[in-house]
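Good day; I would like, with your permission, to put a structural problem before you. What I wish to show you is a protein chain and, alongside it, a tokenised description of its three-dimensional fold. Please examine both parts with care and let me know of anything in them that strikes you as inconsistent. Thank you for your consideration; the sequence and its tokens are set out here:

***
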Amino acid sequence: MTLTFRAQQKFDDMAQEKKQDLADSAEALSDLQKELSAPPNTFSAKERRRKEKEFEEETQDYENEKNRIQAELDERNQEMTRLLMGRIRDVVSGIAKKEGVDLVLDSNDAVVVKGRMDLTGEVLRSFAGMKPDQADLNSEGP
């Protein structure tokens, strides 16, 4: 299993857990809304106002939680991407040093590339061969 796959799987698991929490909250809101849809004589006016206020507050809490979770997921995704890119830079730097290469360009930035100077295959092999503890995306260092 590749490092990027493990990182993506971990992120997806966390996102799924958060989405399940939101789904539970949405279900509770739906139940409360169904209660409020009951015939007017089901509740006293005071009880109806209380339930309507509760529904409004729960709806606001749900929206706030949804926004918080989305921000948390976005932040975690950016953090994982940053750490992954750092690990990739470390691998590329090590290979470039070993091969005596002074300048390494991203394929998007390269104008002319000769096949004999392409380090992509070696970088991919080296990165794929990293042990999980060498490329742990939960820590800052290599």
